[in-house]
Design goal:
binds manganese (II) ion; binds succinic acid; alpha+beta; three-stranded antiparallel beta sheet; Jelly Rolls; globular; 12 strands; 6 helices; seven-stranded antiparallel beta sheet
Length: 230
């Protein structure tokens, strides 16, 4: 799947693209059920909320056949390769649970902030492609983005090691307020199988999920291959 000129222009301007219903509900039901199986396992790749509910499962593309196939799917790989104008490697692969009742907050942050500071990625030539495994609604912990914030470059951030079970480089309230005054805040919602592609510097967050409806999203973090110097 290749993006049109209008989509490329929209991505550059807004920092993200929302593509509803890229995969069928049946395909997502299978992946959702595999995810529940992974969360039920006692393995080091599964990080949990302080309540014990699953928060995220890393690297499922390396130990689960359905996720291996998703991680190599041309409908996901081709448009990112087109946007980054390069071949790609998988920098990170995670299935975020945002569990019913217990799914906790993800504070405001830029992903490249973490890839740069913690992983040593030199440039923001990497991005996320998110695939909804469940329906994402306004009430079950939808991802929130500040459009156009990717143009701000890498922002000052503090290393939050205490708010949740997962360490994150988070932005302060004044910065988020300034960026939201300029770009507003959006929260794309849609059926399972919808996809969001977003720039590594786009500021985003998600609130806790206190509903009975889980909100699982898979993230492929794809990075330009030429950034690796062997
Ligand atoms: C993230 O920003 O990396 C995850 C946010 C979420 O899944 O809600
Ligand atoms: Mn993120």
């Amino acid at each position: 799947m290749l993006l049109t000129d209008a989509q490329l222009e929209e991505f550059d301007r807004e920092g993200y693209l929302f593509l509803p219903s890229c995969f069928s509900k049946e395909e997502m039901a299978l992946l959702a059920s595999e995810a529940e199986g992974i969360y039920a396992e006692d393995r080091k790749e599964v990080w949990r909320e302080s309540s014990g509910a699953p928060r995220t499962a890393f690297a499922a593309h390396t130990y689960n056949e359905a996720y291996r196939r998703l991680g190599a799917h041309p409908r996901l790989i081709e448009p990112v390769s087109q946007l980054l104008d390069d071949d790609l490697y998988m920098h990170q692969f995670k299935i975020n649970a945002k569990a019913a009742f217990d799914g906790d907050v993800w504070q405001w942050h830029q992903d490249f902030g973490t890839w740069h500071r913690d992983d040593g990625m030199p440039e923001p030539r990497a991005m996320n492609i998110a695939v909804f495994l469940d329906e994402v609604m306004p009430i079950n912990g939808a991802l929130m983005f500040i459009p156009k914030s990717h143009k701000a470059g890498v922002l000052e951030a503090g290393h939050d090691l205490s708010t949740t079970s997962y360490p994150l480089w988070t932005l302060d309230k004044a910065e988020v307020t300034k960026l939201a005054d300029e770009g507003g805040i959006v929260a794309p919602t849609g059926p399972a199988g919808s996809v969001i592609m977003f720039h590594g510097n786009l500021v985003h967050a998600s609130p806790p999920n206190i509903t009975p409806y889980p909100r699982k999203i898979v993230y492929l973090t794809l990075c330009a291959l030429s950034l690796i110097h062997i």
